[in-house]
Amino acid sequence: MKISVIGCGRLGVPYATGLAIGGHEVLGLDVAPATVRILSAGRAPFEEPGLAEAIARHRDDGTLRFTNSYDDVAAHADLHILCVGTPQQAGGELAADLSDLNTAVVDLVPRLERDAVIVVKSSVPVGTTAHLGGVARSLAPAGVTVTVVCSPDFLREGMSLEDTACPSRIVLGLPPDPGDAEATLRQAWDFQIAAGSPLVVTDLTTAEMCKTAANAFLATKVSSINAFAALCEATAGDVRQLSRALALDPRIGGDFLAAGLGWGGSCLPKDLRSLIAQGRERGLADLQILAEADAINQRRQARAVELARQACGGVLLGRRVGVWGLAFKPGVDDIRDSPALAVALAIHGEGGIVSAYDPMAIGIARAAHPELSYADSAADALVDADVLLHLTAWPEFTGVGRERLVRLARLARTPVVVDGHAALDQAEWISAGWAVESLGRAPAAVAVGVGRA
């Protein structure tokens, strides 16, 4: 099939590439000329395993192209998939910003010359797809029928190509008069269905909730283990052992039970907050559980700042703080709503001198937040540090051996580490001369005579 994907960000590019891998001819559109140039050159605009290679391969065989022209996509395809961003509104509002999504429909539909199906894949509040369907009908040229459906994405960053090849589930929300939309989408998803992905066909409202509700469940699960982490700190418990025990219960499972600074990225924060806003608009007190999950997330970040402050004698002003990790999770270069970055910025806001290092996200962080200082390596971030903060659990940080830990301790002014993920080997760090504070665990021993006063 000939398919267009509108919006070439962290959702659109992997999805467009995955459709090309699945045998379709795909034309991706983005309004940013720089993004189109990068993609047209066969490169990826961000880090994602296997993505750059797949883009180059399918660009070369002609099954994956990119443009910034709506005329091009209208001529190319009769199936158009909207992957534009729906971020949280600016100014502290919780609701999603749907302006780019509306603009995409307004710019595309008047150019259509044949009947078309438009798929809303972006995360949206309840009622959005029906609204966009009305907009499309009002703008469609005479004799052209446009059907707008909802099929939320379930791609995981770092595994997006794998998830496009065989998603955990496909959800398709149809309007009351869907025409041939379901048959069209079944043809587009034939390679996924053949791989074993179940297809759930439902109404628009239910489909819209499937993605945001899933993310709310996951966010609440993370916040639950982080609430128990706070209790572990207060009672000398160990949240790692607690997580392991909980994971053995098949009703709970081990995914999303790693205690830490909370969740980040593009989906969980904004989708949770969008649901909170929808609940408040409708006066639904039951959704207040989501607001508390969000508050727990924020308190864990504040707790990491508090531990850093305590390690520096109660004041961060003028203190040198080494930071390991800026991405919202290991394996990606994404800093959107990153708890690690939020902690680093909070410390900077209190006058701390931050020296931050991340093995993948440092370039993006440096461009977005030049007010912070950046180090070229994990060791460089420690030079003359009064405290080290472990904020993203990269294997490079969690797998440091004892001999290197001894050398790293000598670089710091004071060998104290705040472990934001309860992921470091406390015994090994202590034996190498470090004091260890950890979210979710009681304070460990104080190092003596290793750092430089």
Please name the defining characteristics of this protein.
about 450 residues, alpha/beta, 6-stranded parallel beta sheet, 18 helices, 14 strands, elongated
Gap between N and C termini: 67 Å
* Major sheet strand order: 3-2-1-4-5-6
Largest sheet: 6 strands, parallel
Work out the helicity level.
40-55%
Number of DSSP E strands: 14
Structural class: alpha/beta
Low-confidence stretches: 445-453
How much of the sequence lies in strands comes to: 5-15%
Instruction: Report the average pLDDT across residues.
Output: 93
Q: Treating each run of at least 4 consecutive H or I residues as one helix, how many helices?
A: 18
What characteristic shape results from the CA principal axes?
Answer: elongated
Question: What is the gyration radius calculated from CA atoms?
Answer: 24 Å
Structure characterization notes:
- This protein is an alpha/beta fold.
- It has 18 helices and 14 strands.
- The chain has helices spanning 12-21, 33-40, 51-60, 70-76, 99-108, 128-139, 160-165, 181-188, 190-194, 204-235, 239-247, 268-281, 288-311, 339-349, 362-368, 395-398, 402-411, 426-431; strands at 2-6, 25-29, 64-67, 79-82, 116-120, 146-150, 170-174, 199-203, 320-324, 353-357, 373-374, 387-390, 416-419, 435-438.
- The chain is elongated, with a radius of gyration of 24 Å.
- It starts with a strand and ends in a 15-residue tail after the last strand.
